Amino acid sequence: MRRKFEELCDPIWKKCLRIVSSVLKEAEVKNADIDEVILVGGSTQIPILRAMISEAFDGKELCMSVNADEVIAE
């Protein structure tokens, strides 16, 4: 079931990564300049998305010390 979900959502994951890349490029910031990556919202519970984002930042460990569902409300 998870495999099918990941296959169906693959275009969404790739779009997410393109957006991240575009934002960094527009801000003239390199992946290596980022100290910490914090994901927020329900999609942070999706292992493949977490892995893809970590990989996009050269394998950097994602910050998981915040409540991803509540942090955006603060």
Automatic annotation (TrEMBL):
<dbReference type="GO" id="GO:0005524">
    <property type="term" value="F:ATP binding"/>
</dbReference>
<dbReference type="GO" id="GO:0140662">
    <property type="term" value="F:ATP-dependent protein folding chaperone"/>
</dbReference>
<keyword id="KW-0067">ATP-binding</keyword>
<keyword id="KW-0547">Nucleotide-binding</keyword>
<protein>
    <recommendedName>
        <fullName>Heat shock protein 70</fullName>
    </recommendedName>
</protein>
<dbReference type="Pfam" id="PF00012">
    <property type="entry name" value="HSP70"/>
</dbReference>
<dbReference type="InterPro" id="IPR013126">
    <property type="entry name" value="Hsp_70_fam"/>
</dbReference>
<dbReference type="InterPro" id="IPR043129">
    <property type="entry name" value="ATPase_NBD"/>
</dbReference>
<dbReference type="InterPro" id="IPR018181">
    <property type="entry name" value="Heat_shock_70_CS"/>
</dbReference>
